[in-house]
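Onboarding guide, step 5: your first structure request.
Type a short instruction followed by the sequence, for example:

Predict the 3D structure of this protein.
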Amino acid sequence: MNVYKVNLTPCGSMTSIPDSQTIFGTICWAIRDLYGEKELEELLDNFKANKNRFVVSSAFMDGLFKAPIVIWATLEELIEFGRKAGIKESVLSTKSKVLKKIEHFTERVFREYLSGKLDRLKVAESIVTGKGPYVFKNGILHYKDEDVKRYKIAEEHTRRNRINRLTATTEGGGLYYYNRIFIGEDTKLYFLIKTEQIQYFKPIFRIMSDMGIGGDKSIGANNFKVELAGEFKYEKIIEENVLLSKYIPYYEEVDWENSLFAISAGAYRVESREGFFGEDILKDEMIYISEGSTLMLEEDKDIYGRMPVVKEIREKKIRYNGLAFFL
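The system replies with structure tokens like these:
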């Protein structure tokens, strides 16, 4: 399958940056609205054999990628860096902990990593000694000559009335606070999609601009201008596969002993649309492998992972998207 980049320009605030689960669900709603419920069900029931199958990554700020899990240096190597630079052990311990706080790579650093040209020891030495080509700032690993000031996220806590769904009033509903996220006007998000049928998805992206991605669209949150940016080309030399989505694996797909991975758990809601009003729309909690994991795969195929059915609402199967997006 080919890889394409899709830009997301926020039209206001977000409650969170959309992940692969949320993006997948929005695409499925768009398929239903555009092509009909029967076509969506046929796709989901026979996903891996369907010509319109697809895999999506989580969204990231344009110009950034989730940092792969890397063992940057051994204890002995860090001590040697400190000895050469004349850094005291207490200071060395503090500086070396920064390596665990790297959340994102700039695209330049990420492409260097994929091509096998990123020297882990040079990164570690740059961060520990403060001398070298690499810099860590605000969770981002980047080159000294790269400007990362625009990668800023502002958060605020907003108060809202809680609605009593039985009476459709605020009586007995109370108040609660929720997060609103803002990014700069000159910044956008993106996600990647793998597909063999990009023409099929072009009208879907246009509909997504009207639908929003995620909840709270009625109060102006999570609305985006969705635009296909074009094919995403890259050079990959490394053996490991970098996970850029949530992943619910089949055990036999992964060489677990030679992989580095993080495990998380989360619960999502089904979008409260016609057909689900008045129903329990909260999905059961699911455990998954997180973005940034670096996995050695046992099999060579297009689609990795599962889409387990976690509940049924009015005879409709409700699934989790656990399909892995690897680069």
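Each response can be followed by summary notes, for example: The mean pLDDT is 86.
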